[in-house]
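Consider the tokenized backbone below.
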């Protein structure tokens, strides 16, 4: 027996095999397994990359903006009062109103008006509203309104009388 014959082993069918032949992959059927493995690898990698990218975007957006989802907007106070089922009084000044919309809509704002016109304006705008007597401001109005499309379901008005014959009105109107 020579040295080469000694290094040969028996094959799976009991016959002799050449040196190194048992280390080779079968030629048929293995390519689809390899492709499936690579497909799974790339799919998992793509999902992981998407998750990391989303976290990076969220971290950047929330650290550089007060409103990353663009839900806050400045609106006119006449539009805010229309949403609150009222009207902006004549002679209103220093108007500053905004709207926050996501699942519900909340409209907030402040404006100044002549102090003498507060009572008649409230009776005209909210005839069913009854101002509260003890509320921390000079006049408070808190009303639930019937649900109408495009309008508020809850309206809160706080009026603080200022020196010089003016009143500061704070509005909050929201849907539920």
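A designed sequence for it:
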């Amino acid at each position: 027996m020579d040295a080469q014959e000694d290094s040969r082993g028996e094959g799976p069918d009991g016959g002799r095999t050449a040196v190194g032949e048992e280390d080779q992959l079968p030629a048929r059927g293995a390519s689809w397994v390899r492709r499936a493995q690579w497909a799974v690898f790339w799919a998992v990698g793509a999902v992981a990359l998407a998750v990391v990218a989303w976290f990076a975007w969220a971290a950047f957006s929330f650290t550089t903006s007060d409103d990353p989802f663009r839900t806050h907007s400045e609106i006119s106070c006449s539009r805010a009062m229309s949403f609150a089922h009222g009207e902006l009084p004549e002679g209103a000044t220093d108007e500053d109103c905004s709207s926050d919309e996501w699942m519900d809509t909340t409209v907030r704002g402040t404006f100044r008006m002549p102090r003498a016109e507060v009572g008649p304006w409230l009776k005209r705008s909210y005839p069913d509203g009854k101002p509260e007597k003890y509320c921390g401001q000079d006049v408070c109005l808190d009303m639930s309104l019937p649900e109408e499309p495009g309008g508020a379901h809850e309206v809160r008005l706080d009026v603080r009388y200022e020196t010089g014959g003016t009143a500061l009105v704070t509005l909050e109107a929201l849907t539920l």
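The longest strand covers residues 105-114.
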